Structures are given as structure tokens and as C-alpha cells.
Amino acid sequence: MQNGFGRVITSGSGRGLWSLIIITLVVSGCSMVAVSQWDQMFGPAEPRERLVAADSDAGLHFLNEVQPMLEQRCVVCHGCYDSPCQLNLASPEGIDRGASKDKVYNSARLGVAPLTRMFEDAQTTAGWRAKKFWPVLNEHEQTPQANLDASIMHHMLALKRSNPLPEGPVLDEKEFDLSLDRKQFCAKPDELDKFDKKHPLWGMPYATPNLAEAEFATLESWLEEGARMAVAPMENAEIMAAVIDWEAFLNGASLKQQLMSRYLYEHWFLANLYFNALDDNTYFKLVRSATPPGQPIELIATRRPYDDPGVDRFYYRFRRDHATVLDKTHMPYGLDTKRMAWLQSLFIDADYTVEELPSYAVDVAANPFLVFQSIPIPSRWEFLRAEAQFTVMNFIKGPVCRGQIAVDVIRDNFWVFFEDTEIYASEAAAAFLAEQNDNLRMPSESGSAAAPWRTWKKYSKAQDAYLLAKADFADKNISAADVNLDLIWDGNGNNQNAALTVFRHFDSASVVKGLVGPAPRTAWLIGYPILERIHYLLVAGFDVYGNVGHQLTTRMYMDFLRMESEANFLSLLPQDARVTESRNWYEGADEKQQAYLFGSRFNITVPTGISYSTDNPKLELFGMLHERLAPVLNKAFELDQPGMPARQLESLQRLAAIQGLLLSPIPEAVFLNVQSSDGTERYYTVLRNVAHRNITALFSEQKNLVPEEDTLAVVSGFIGSYPNAYWKVAEEDLPDLVNSIAELTDEASYAALLDRYGVRRTAADFWQHSDKIIAAHEAADPVANGLPDYNRLANH
Prior knowledge:
Blueprint: H1 14-42, H2 57-75, H3 92-97, H4 125-130, H5 144-149, H6 152-162, H7 192-198, H8 213-224, H9 237-250, H10 255-268, E1 272-275, E2 283-289, E3 315-321, E4 332-335, H11 337-348, H12 362-365, H13 368-371, H14 377-386, H15 388-397, H16 404-407, E5 413-418, H17 427-435, H18 452-477, E6 500-504, E7 509-513, E8 522-526, H19 528-538, H20 548-570, H21 575-585, H22 591-597, H23 617-629, H24 646-656, E9 669-675, E10 681-689, E11 711-716, E12 725-730, H25 734-742, H26 747-757, H27 766-780
Parallel strand pairs: 1-4, 5-8, 9-12
Antiparallel strand pairs: 2-3, 5-6, 6-7, 9-10, 10-11
Helix pairs in contact: 2-8, 6-8, 15-19, 18-20, 19-20, 24-25
């Protein structure tokens, strides 16, 4: 065979074998020499204790001067699972953990990757070293010289300072790879010289302007002094009291209380939980601990929240999450006395009994319809639906949202409605769902190393059986009089979760309350079995470290849930319109897909009881739903806000009306800053909705695009965690910006627009503009906001 150096090695060639051994020794010897130089100069490396008291001089310096700079210059690219080189700078523990060459997101992975979840899979820096993470801070002797010379963080900052961005508005794509799945060059200490020679322009912050001199000096001084860090204290007595009350509530002894708490934990484990005294961004994670309340948490870390905890007795505890809040993972959920009383009424006071607690065996635990069958369905449905945005956000912002394959199962823009609770109140409905427990199983129970074809075949067969049974049940138990607008939850007259809008931004997505943007091509009507399965498929049961089979079967099963949600909505239309719309939504699907879509599985023959009077019943239905839900529709994203200048409103409405091919150069998520002459600044989001003929193709999405049908949604405020571009315009120039967009012809014309109105990633004032965006977002919504992520910033 031929080795990497072009030399032929055969099983009978001792010379070839010795050549390979010599080459290996030479290469490894170079590494050992490089590392030993640091050892010889600064002594052996070992993890250092860097945490200091928050009220110490070093602690105050970190919290007030260093951490804000790290957040707004570094964490905007280095946070969570998709941090380059897994370097997560959102907390002192993440900074100390360091970097790794392993990639979490790998859609071609044949095996299961090792778990490297921050705060879970190792509790100490030494634990991360055992998992092959190397330091970016100096771990040799702690002297000022060593703290700089043996620090990868300082090395990368200094490299950028010595090699600033080349002049010009657009970066050379041969020099700067900005693709999301670019090859990563994660330099270990012994590889820095090689990295510098090969990529001298790749210092930090990557592909953006240098730090200001004062910013660099602040970080350099902090590193020189040993990079000591602190965590802001949590001294709010009301919050501490609330933690005690909630831990008592969730650790009750009765079987009802234990089953309720298991259900809550499996739906809240990703939440940023906060209490009614929130005044300092104090968030918590709900975890399982081997120790009871009042003692230090002894974390039980499992791959999935429904995995066996491995101990006879465990406790639900609130662990403070002091990491920087990132918009892409931030899912706030408020807890107060009113919420506790509501949960008490749903899960404890409700009339049912629990004879024994369900098993943690995977064939049981992965199926919520089996595990929680004792809890009345109306209670479970009311719980999920009351915070529907949060429930849906879990699969939008959870680990599954990263990457095209994960979210190409949904369209770029659609509205979501929910079924009324009364649908599940009858004994017949409860009995039907109980009969379908086995058919409602999901591929997540097959684990993280699924064999795709065998797994797919098993669960698609079960889904077919469920859909056929559902159609038969509907035909026998539902009449036309039952199919009316009362089927749609109206938010009880005060809950804005009754209507949601989902925007997909190619390989990420957002969900907001309200019916936002232009009328979409499709809509979903979600009931309890669908929403519960979405959660256990894409959130509780999804493993971002799983193999390609697990990821593919998860994606393909989500096709079922999307189509079922769409079919539910179509059932409100006249029967001929159901067929017309469905064929329009799946234009160009192949024969097998059409046979599935238009066959008996979705053939609910019950006619609608809703009266229609136009030749466009879908738009007519949207109008009726608007009217029904008007009291609870969120208006925060509407353009016509109080105090909005008429001229500004007219221009933005004209922008929102632009459609078609000329939108192609515009990225999918743009944050627009409009500056009025009186100094007032308003912020908007411009979203390009990419039209598809259908979304059935797993790997050839491009062929289903219909750019002549692309639309824009222009909204007040911020939607999206990953801005692709920043625009800035004076109010008097806004009409010209709109005219320029209406006259776009190609990338060159869009580049000319950016010359006038763009704040490119290369702009001298990029970081200053970024700071304004972050401050404006925080001011607009102090609870829901988080730092944006810049890994998808365009290079135009």
C-alpha cells in the first residue's frame, strides 16, 4: 500500500516499515521538542486555580472590565456547541477548559462521538484535560512572562494585532474560509509556529476588525496577571427563597408528585429558568442530583434527560447558570407562585391516580405516551400549549437547530395554531390515544447509533398505522358540525402563545409569538400527539453527538410530523381545496411521495363546517383566524408602532412588498438601523423567505427552490440569533435604500448597496455598531434577549 509520503510499504518490506517508524518518531519528536521548550522555560503544565472572590480587586476587574469585552468581542463567535474548536468562552469554566480538535456537529459521523457538554461531562479542568482538551491560558509557572508567552489566547490576539485585516470591503475567499462547516485549524501549543506561517491573517477575532488598542491592552494585562476570573454573586434573598420553595415542590414524596416532576424535568432541562424577582439576569438549570436540597449538587449527567439516573434516590435541583446568555440557546421560562399553583392544579389536584412509577428502561422511557399515560391528556396538553413558543423553541434553538439537514424539514415561513383542549376531554379520544401508544413510538428509542434503513422502516410503518387509525377515528366520531373555528385554541382570551410564526434562515430558525409577516404558503395545526412527539424526537431524544443514522432518521421522522400538522390545518378547508392546497405545497414531489401524501393516510373525509364565500379559502381562513385570535395576537413586531414616523413607515411597507428574483442577493436575516434627524434610532429585521416547490428532498434542496416567489418580512425589532448582515441608513435616505433593493440585479448591485448602507464585517466601525445592536436588543427585551452569533455573517 502507499503511505502519506508516497512510499510503498508491503507486508514483506522491512525497509518500508522502518521508514514509517522513523518518520513517525521524527514527527512526534518535533512535537515533544516544542512542548518541552515551554516545560524547560516555565516548568511543567498543570491546571491552575483561577477563580477568585467576586469582591476582590481581581474579581471586580474581571467582572467589570474583562468579561464584558470577552462577551462582545469573543463569545459572539465562541459559545455553545458550535464554537470553533469547541472553545467556549461564555464562562470562566469554559475559558479554562480550552479547545479541542473534535467537532460536535458532524452529519457524516458513523459512530457516536464522546460527550463534551459544558458543566455536565466534566466538572473540573483536569477532567477536561483527560478528555483531550488543551489550555488556551498558561498552565506552566505563573509569571507575567509565562502568562503571555505560553498562552494561546494571547498568541492569537497578538497575531491579529500584527496582521490586521487586508484593506478592502470584501475578504479574499481563498484566504478566509467563512463557510459554517469550514475545516477547522485548531492549533495546539506545539503547532502555533506552523499555524502562524500558514495562516498569518487568522488571528482573533477572526475575519473581523482588530480590537481597539485599549481593548487589547485590557486583555493583555489580564492574561499577564494570571487570567483570574470570578462569578458574580447571587445575593437576592427572594430568589434564594424561591429556589428552596421550588425544590421542595419538585421533590415531593407522593407518586403523583414524582411523576409530575419527571414530566416537568424532561420538558424543562434546556430552559433558562428564572424567578419572579429577576433583576440581574439570574438563570437556573433544572438538573438531577444525587444529593438532596440543602447540600452541594452532585450532578447526574446522562446522555438524555429520560435516561436511567443510575441511583435509587435522586433529587431535582436548581443549578445556577452563570454563563453568558446567548440568543441562540436562550429559552427563558418564568417560575413564580402563580405558576406553581397552576402546575398543582394540572398535575396534583387533577382527578387521577398513579399506581406505580414507570420504568427508565429505554423502550419505556423514550415514549412519553407510555411513561405519562396516568396523567390526563388535557393536563399534559394544557402544560405544553400554555408556553407553546417555549415548547417549539426547544427544537428551534436546541442542538438540532444547527445545520441545513436539521431544519430543511420546515419551510422558510409558516404560521402555527393549536387545537383546543376540549378535543382531548372525551373518553373516546383518551381511549384512542391509549390504543395508539405503540404506534406513537419514535426513532429516538433506537439510541444514538441507529441503523438508518432498519430504524426508518420500523417507525414509518408505525406512523402509517397511526394515521390510518386516526382517519378512521375521525370519520366515525367527528361530524361536519364539529369542524369549526372552535377547534382552534383562542389563548383563553389572554395568552399570546395561541399563534406562532416560524422563520427558517437556511440552516437556523426562529419562532415568535403572533402572525408575523406576509400570509405564508403553509400553516400547521398542532395537537397534543404532534407537539409531544416533536419534543421527544428533536429535543429530549435527539443526541447532537449521535451518528449519521440517528440524525437522518430523526430528520425523516420529522417529515411525518410536519405533514400531519399541515393535514390538520387543511381539514378546516373545503375538501376540494384540501387537495388543491396540498398539491400546491408538494409541487414536484416524486410519485412515491405523492402516493403517500395523497393516499388514505391523510384522507380525512369529514367535511368542514366552516362557511366560505371566496375562491381562495386558505386566505379566507387566515382572515377568520386573525379575527378569532385578535385579542391575543402579539403586535410587537408590527411596523406601525406608536411614534413611528409616517415617511419611515411608508418606505418600510414598500420594502416589505418587494418579491421575486431580485431578492436573491439579499441574505436571509438582516438587522436594519434607521437613524432619524432628531437622533432617534429604530431597529428592524429584514427576513428573506426563500420559496420552495416542496421540502421533501433531503440532499437536493437547491432543485426545489423557486426564487421568483421569494418574499420579504420586514418587522420591528429583532428576529434571529444569527444576523447575516447589518444595514444602517439615515431616515431621509431610506426611500433610496428601498429603491436600490427594488432595482437589484446581481451580487454586484447588492455590493454597491452595501457600499452605501452596509456595515460589513470588515468595516472600521463594525464593533461599535455591534455594541449598539446588542444594547438595543437588551433594552427592547431584557429577559428574552441574548448575544447574537457572528458565525453566519456574510462576506459581500
